[in-house]
Design a protein that fits this description.
With 341 residues, the protein is an alpha+beta fold. The chain contains 10 helices and 9 strands. The chain binds adenosine-5'-[phenylalaninyl-phosphate] (FA5).
């Protein structure tokens, strides 16, 4: 080793640090030169004769001091930068999102039913035909099974598959009735909030994707009066007022008798508008006494147990509650709309 080798090492080092803009990288270079390059120089000193050892050792020490000072200087710069940070400056604005009005309402509905002793159950959005239709007593040729109403999943040789293996996007939350009852013993008191899908033309009160809240109460000697009382309490709590409720006879294959529940239209105060189709009433749920065949599908003996079920349209309730005249606004992603909740 010659004294010029140390000069060359110094040149190489200075070139490298000058090229680097980031303080972090400059610190890395300094450390590398001290820990690798210079330490191998110091190691090889022992093989040198006295005079050269002293000359090269001195130069190497000078170079180490230069690099260490630079390293200290870089550390100081970072420290100064941190010290100069003004803690009195206003913070950066973090844009917070908010909970969607439908989710907010769903949570509110859940809280009311929880107070009445209902439990919350869930089921899959991708459902099979057996749970969505067969188990709920739908006839093989029921019109809702048509492509116009239901979003079916494309499957190879679909027609040949059993209904348990034919998939669709659930058209309602009712399949969870059977899913829930199947492995449990009555009595049951559950609600099932969730997203459902229908293949329909949209308008101000119909969406292709919307939310329902299913209710199911099964036990001994349950009556329509019990149902009327539960929904009466629910709507009173939800609207914080006595809204008008009316039950109309209807038909669902999975309930007998069946009814449609309407609440008075708060958007037009019953004067008639496009949402209530000029009737002053908005249909918000389908309901009825659970059909014995549904109980049988779930292995519940209908000679001992009976009950009621209902399916509430959460979007429709949100429209009434917030006086919104078009359901499509909920799914428009328009922040001007969403920021109002
Ligand atoms: C049903 O879906 C039944 N499963 C409800 C039910 C459950 C009946 C249990 C009996 C026992 P229906 O298709 O009527 O029923 O829908 C229920 C509610 O969902 C309606 O009252 C309405 O509030 C809402 N709804 C229906 N279609 C749409 C749509 N396209 N967009 C928004 N909300 C809808």
């Amino acid at each position: 080793m010659k004294s010029e080798d140390i000069d060359q090492l110094k040149d190489r080092f200075l070139k490298e640090v000058k090229k680097e803009n980031s303080s972090k990288e400059r610190k890395k270079i300094c450390k590398r030169y001290i820990e690798e390059e210079l330490s191998s120089v110091f190691c090889s000193l022992k093989n040198l004769s006295g005079e050269r050892k002293a000359e090269i050792g001195k130069k190497a020490n000078e170079l180490r001091k230069l690099i260490s000072d630079l390293l200290e200087n870089e550390k100081e710069k970072v420290f100064q930068a941190e010290k100069e940070f003004d803690i009195t400056l206003p913070g950066k604005n973090v844009e917070l999102g908010s909970i969607h009005p439908i989710t907010k309402l769903q949570k509110k509905c859940e809280r009311i039913f929880l107070r009445m002793g209902f439990a919350i159950a869930e089921g899959p959005e991708l459902e099979n035909e057996w749970y969505n239709f067969d188990a709920l007593n739908f006839e093989e040729d029921h019109p809702v099974r048509e492509m116009q109403d239901t979003l079916f999943v494309k499957q190879k040789n679909r027609e040949e598959l059993p209904s348990q293996e034919r998939f669709l996007m659930r058209t309602h939350t009712s399949p969870v009735q059977v899913r829930y009852m199947k492995d449990r013993e009555p009595p049951f008191r559950i609600i099932v909030p969730g997203r459902v899908f229908r293949n329909e033309a949209t308008d101000s009160s119909h969406e292709i994707n919307f939310y329902q809240l299913e209710g199911l109460m099964v036990g001994e000697n349950i009556s329509v009066a019990n149902f009327r009382s539960v929904v009466g309490y629910f709507f009173k709590e939800l609207f914080d007022a006595d809204v008008g409720i009316r039950l109309r006879p209807s038909f669902f294959p999975f309930t007998e008798p069946s009814f449609e529940v309407d609440v008075s239209c708060s958007i037009c105060e019953k004067k008639g508008c496009s949402v209530c189709k000029k009737t002053g009433w908005i249909e918000v749920m389908g309901a009825g006494m659970v059909h014995p065949n549904v109980l049988r599908s779930a292995d519940v003996d209908p000679s001992y147990f009976n009950g009621f079920a209902f399916g509430l349209g959460i979007d429709r309730i949100a429209m009434i509650k917030h006086k919104i005249d078009d359901i499509r606004l909920f799914y428009s992603g328009d922040l001007r709309f969403l920021r109002q909740f």
